[in-house]
Structure formats: C-alpha cells, structure tokens
Amino acid sequence: MKHAPFIAVEGPIGAGKTTLATMLASELELPVIREIVEENPYLDKFYQNMDDWSFQLEMFFLCNRYKQLEDTVNQYIDRGKPVISDYHIYKNLIFGERTLKGTKRDKYREIYHVLTDDLPKPDIILYIRANLDTLMARIAKRGRPFEEEISPAYMQQLIEDYDDAMASLAVREPSTVIVTIDGNQVDFVENKEDFAAIAEHLKELMT
Ligand SMILES: Nc1ncnc2c1ncn2[C@@H]1O[C@H](COP(=O)(O)OP(=O)(O)OP(=O)(O)O)[C@@H](O)[C@H]1O
Ligand SMILES: Nc1nc(=O)c2ncn([C@H]3C[C@H](O)[C@@H](CO)O3)c2[nH]1
C-alpha cells in the first residue's frame, strides 16, 4: 500500500464493529474514530415508529458522519497518517435505502452523493458477517433499552442489504480491499488466536 491506509470496520447492527475497531486500534497503535450513539436524539423514537422518524434519523447520522469524515480527512488522511473507523460512510446509504420511502428516499440519496462523493473513502474494509441468531443475541446482551424494539425481520433485511452492498462496492470500487470475517465462527473477543490472525492480516495489508 503506497499511502497510509484509511480502515473501516463494517457489518450489521451488533456485529462487533466498535469492539474490533477498538481492539485493533490498541494493538496496532492507530487512532480510532467511533460512531456517536448515546447522544442521538432520534434512535429511540425511530425504533418505536420507523416510518415517522426515519428521515430525521438518517439525516442526523449523515450530518454527523459527514462532519467526522471531514475531521478525519483533515487530521489523518491529508497528513498521511493511518486511521481506523468503526463504520464506513456508505452505511448511510445501506440504511437509508432500507428505511426511507418515495421522494424522501430520492432526496436523501441525492444529498448523500452531494456530501460524500468527493471525499476520501476507506481503502480497507473489515466486513464482519454474522447470522440473525448471533446478532440478536449480541444486541440483547448489550442491553441498550431502545434496541429492544428491533425486529428480527428488520435485522434479516439488513444482513442481506449488507451482503448486497459489499458485493456491489467490490465491483464499483475494485481498489478497495474487503476482508470478510465470519462473525459466527471467528471470535475475536474470546479467542486470542482469532484476534491475532485478524491483526496480522491487517498489518500485512498496511505495508
Ligand atoms: N466476537 C464476539 N463474541 C462475543 N461477544 C461479542 C463479540 N463481538 C461483539 N460482542 C459483543 O456484542 C455486543 C455488540 O458489539 P459492538 O457494540 O462492538 O457491535 P457494533 O457492531 O459496533 O454495534 P452497532 O451496530 O450497534 O454499532 C457487545 O456487547 C460486544 O461486547
Ligand atoms: N436507521 C439507521 N441508519 C443508520 O445510518 C444507522 N447507523 C447506526 N444505526 C443504528 C444501529 C444501532 O441500533 C445504533 C448504533 O449503531 O444505531 C443506524 N440506523
């Protein structure tokens, strides 16, 4: 890799993105960018009534991530410093296409492209895949009250949306390296060897 890489960890809700990004940042001594969750004023309302709150929620996520991406570019990418993030801004489109309908979806898609098309995107994506049972169990174990409303049907759609999105990204942006991690089999939390293998692979990709 010629330049310092921009790395993103991705996967559906509860896949372990923040956990893995934080562990890798510590192991490889990289700065880490984490999603803003607790201060989000719309998540609770959104999970209670998706149709009423999806536009506000998606715009909130988009504006926050746009600001974080701008800061990441200024602080790290433009200065040639590697950085790892617990999301890829493309997830805005994955969620937006699923939760929005009609003209709002069209407008949101346009705003997404206007804001992000000219900004640098991650060079390496660590994509954690996991099945419905694994994800629902992890969401329950984490115990965020507002996520009690998440339905298995919504999660199953997101699992499929993520698979489709990663496949289409691989075709559209062949220079992006996508490493798929089987989150049902590979346990980077409990199993030191599993984590070491991921960290080693990432180190190799970064040189
Ligand atoms: N490999 C794993 N084995 C066991 N528990 C895990 C594993 N990965 C993550 N967890 C647990 O699952 C929960 C979700 O993990 P985490 O918050 O990192 O997911 P996330 O993908 O960042 O979620 P979100 O999409 O909501 O941002 C946490 O309680 C975490 O400790
Ligand atoms: N609708 C929607 N759009 C997004 O861009 C998005 N990004 C994250 N989330 C949800 C998943 C977790 O519950 C919680 C923390 O990741 O927020 C999102 N929901």
Automatic annotation (TrEMBL):
Residues 7-206 form the Deoxynucleoside kinase domain. GO terms for molecular function: kinase activity. The keyword Metal-binding does not apply. It comes from the Bacteria. SUPFAM superfamilies: P-loop containing nucleoside triphosphate hydrolases. Pfam families: dNK. Keywords: Kinase, Transferase. The keyword DNA-binding does not apply. Gene3D superfamilies: P-loop containing nucleotide triphosphate hydrolases. This is Deoxyguanosine kinase.
